[in-house]
Amino acid sequence: MEDSDFWDTLKDLISDNNHMVVANAITALAEIQESSIRPIFEITSHTLSKLLIALNKCTEWGQVFILDALFKYKAIDAREAENIMERVISRLQL
After folding, report:
1. Which domain holds residue 59?
2. How many CA atoms lie within 13 A of 7 on its CB side?
């Protein structure tokens, strides 16, 4: 799989209009990352906004994987971190 362009295909799916596709792409990338030595996927400001939008529109399991990916993201500054927290806090409440 490392020799194919499968990762690029999964990364492209993060920009899909279907939020379930986005959640499933993140899930697949997270699973691949766990068994790989080298970094597979990094969240950029562009993918960050896609994930935050998909977070509110996908299933609970999709939300779990998106939240896990967001947990590993390093915010650029305090303002960005605060913005992310404002968008995900409702998903962390009972």
Report:
1. 6-92
2. 15
Torsion of CA 85, 90, 30, 35, to 10 degrees: 90
Looking at the structure of the chain, the number of domains it has is: 1
What is the C-alpha separation between 75 and 18, in angstroms, rounded? 25
Nearest to 22 by CA among 41, 1, 3, 2: 41
**Does 1 fall in a domain?**
no
Residue 44 lies in a domain: yes
Greater confidence (16 vs 7) lies with 16
Supply 24's token pair. Answer: 């499933």
Half-sphere exposure (Cβ direction) of 64: Cα atoms closer than 13 Å: 5
Between these two residues, 88 and 92, which has the higher pLDDT value? 88
